[in-house]
């Protein structure tokens, strides 16, 4: 029985309609920016394997750190115990972040990092005797994960219709997206802020927290906003004492050109969610980093105010060791400089791509480049599967978000490989003009 046949007999894949999806491709190894199939084909990973891979697949420095840790301590319950990888990683993260973000709570993926953040914000009010803060605020189109709290603040993303009746109460405010040569962004920002002012005037006294993907909304179609807009939103929210939560699960660890997007936004949130690139793409690990002010509301003389939340693999030593090795590579390999080179190449390419009929809203930030085909982004557009299949035929792993095509390669991608990716993507865009030019 082949690997694919075995998989189809027993495995249930994520974000997949199993009734119509083609057979999964059998992957056997990876190196750098490349994936290798069972039949020997080499696929260039332009999605960083769901946005997790930072420095390249099977990076020897991370692999060596992982192997060494596996021979020392593979796991221990983190309630009542600690270990060097977790303590050192917490120190490294808080040293890289602005104060007062100085308390690290570990979990295992982006959804759980967000879930912990929402619970922290909510319980912090409760611990202070404030019982009427029962709403959360988020941007329209925001996606924050698939657990129930994360779904609630991301309900406007359009992914959660079957669960609408059991989600938490939330409010959603407009996201003023922008793109290159956008002459109307200030008008959209003004309108979005006016709506936000209305929401805050009506519901501000009942909001437990505000959560946002800073600068880039990933699953919504790589929609980008200006730092000025995000700062204005956060200033209004913070003025009412509402905790600001940044979901940097995707944007963290260099994706936007700085280690964290908050550096460009010029905002220090009260709580920060990290995952995906945290371990360089090796193991599941997440961190929810809270301010000292949030943390101190949980201190007391009995368990009633404690944060009663955790996971079996919280602060797994293997994941923490991988994360420490990944963070060290940012300095030793000058990762942010590599990402700056990718950004410049993306900008040059967009000049040509934007001239293709039907291409709209070209945009770039850090190692992310994106464009729409035929108007507004639509995750459910029939173009998505067609384009994905065509990219795979050309040995490129690109996962369009409906009619949004984006590239987000690992920082290690060689210039010649990125140039090939740009050329092939341009070819595919031109091939599919009949599919989207009329939309």
Could you name the ranges where pLDDT drops below 50 across 5 or more consecutive residues? none
Binned strand content: 15-25%
Which architecture of the largest domain does the CATH hierarchy give at level 2? 3-Layer(aba) Sandwich
Main β-sheet, spatial strand arrangement? 4-12-11-10-7-5-6
User: How many structurally independent domains?
Assistant: 2
CATH topology of the largest domain: Aspartate Aminotransferase, domain 2
Distance between the termini: 44 Å
Q: Name the CATH class of the largest domain.
A: Alpha Beta
Number of beta strands: 16
CATH H-level homologous superfamily name of the largest domain: Type I PLP-dependent aspartate aminotransferase-like (Major domain)
What's the helical proportion of residues?
Answer: 25-40%
How many helical elements?
15
Shape: globular
Structural class, judged by helices and strands? alpha/beta
The profile of the biggest β sheet is: 7 strands, mixed
Rg computed from alpha carbons, rounded to a whole number of angstroms = 22 Å
Brief characterization of the structure:
With 439 residues, the protein is an alpha/beta fold. Helix content is 38%, strand content 16%.
Brief descriptors of the model:
2 domains; 38% helix; seven-stranded mixed sheet; Aspartate Aminotransferase, domain 1; alpha/beta
Describe this structure in words.
- The protein has 2 domains: 3-55 and 333-436, Aspartate Aminotransferase, domain 1, CATH 3.90.1150.10; 64-330, Aspartate Aminotransferase, domain 2 (3-Layer(aba) Sandwich), CATH 3.40.640.
- The N and C termini lie far apart (44 Å).
- Helix 3 runs antiparallel to helix 11 (317-332) and helix 12 packs parallel to helix 14 (415-431).
- The longest helix has 19 residues, at 185-203.
- The protein is of the alpha/beta class and 439 residues long.
- The strands form 4 sheets. A 7-stranded mixed sheet has the order 4-12-11-10-7-5-6, sandwiched between helices. A 4-stranded mixed sheet has the order 1-2-3-15.
- The radius of gyration is 22 Å and the shape is globular.
- The model has no long low-confidence stretch (mean pLDDT 96).
- The protein contains 15 helices and 16 strands.
- The protein has helices spanning 3-10, 48-51, 60-70, 84-96, 110-127, 148-153, 185-203, 227-239, 262-265, 292-296, 317-332, 335-353, 383-393, 415-431, 433-436; strands at residues 27-31, 34-37, 42-45, 101-107, 135-139, 170-173, 207-212, 216-217, 223-224, 244-247, 271-274, 286-291, 359-365, 368-373, 396-397, 404-407.
